[in-house]
Design goal:
The protein is of the alpha+beta class. The protein has two domains: about 5-110, no CATH class; about 125-205, Nonspecific Lipid-transfer Protein, Chain A (2-Layer Sandwich). It is built from eight helices and four strands. Strands 2-1-3-4 form a four-stranded mixed sheet. Strand 1 (about 150-155) and strand 2 (about 160) form a beta hairpin. The longest helix has 25 residues, at about 55-80. InterPro entries: CHP03085 (IPR017519), DinB/YfiT-like (IPR034660), Maleyloyr_isom (IPR017517).
């Protein structure tokens, strides 16, 4: 089982365990909303554009609600657990290349929104994969940062991003935690953040991610 499928299975099991009304770290979304989002991005490419493009967000939201009405919560989770769909199931290697990160982040969105949670120790190869993704995407992930950012990976590695010619904040953690930080989960990623007080506050409040 690859990492994408492992994260998918673990998230699906947790969604079934918690039910449709549990909180997530995705602002305004319950577990029901998150399940519909995951099905939409794989099975409704016509509506996926609104995930990243604000002008299309209304249509995406309407399709997401329609999926909830059509399948119900358990039906959506069963679709998630059935495996990658669309291009993710057709193009060799695409599932693990894209969904390992996607399902890890959303798995943690559910885990860390609950009253009791603790960070997981990830497999070394998954940590390495996430660090490669961070290095490749750091300028996109940190493009809305109002300050310069230096990411220090525990175990080795440095990546630079954020605004040039601005105060610099240094963020240190494992690759998994740095990934969550760069995806806008700053307050829920146990990393060390160091720099001028105002710059740190600005970075922690910034809307990071894709």
């Amino acid at each position: 089982m690859n990492h994408a499928r492992a994260e998918r299975a673990a998230l699906g099991d947790l969604l079934l365990q918690l039910g449709p009304d549990a909180p997530t770290l995705c602002e305004g979304w319950t577990t029901f909303d998150l399940a519909a989002h995951l099905v939409l991005r794989e099975r409704r490419p016509d509506a996926a554009g609104g995930i990243a493009l604000r002008p299309l967000a209304g249509y995406t939201a309407s399709v997401q609600e329609a999926l909830k009405a059509r399948y119900g919560y358990e039906g959506l989770v069963k679709l998630i657990l059935s495996g990658p769909a669309g291009l993710y199931g057709l193009v060799p290697g695409m599932d693990n290349a894209v969904n390992a990160m996607e399902f890890f982040v959303h798995h943690e969105d559910v885990r860390r929104a609950q009253r009791v949670w603790e960070p997981r120790e990830l497999p070394a190869d998954l940590e390495e994969t996430f660090w490669k993704r961070i290095r490749a995407g750091r300028r996109v992930f940190l493009r809305r940062s109002p300050v310069g950012v230096v990411l220090h990976r525990i175990g080795g590695g440095v990546a630079l991003g954020g605004t040039r010619d601005a105060a610099v904040v240094e963020v240190t953690g494992t690759a998994g935690e740095l990934l969550l930080f760069c995806f806008g989960r700053q307050s829920h990623a146990p990393v060390d953040v160091a720099g001028p007080e105002e710059a740190v506050a600005a970075l922690m409040d910034a809307r990071l991610g894709v």
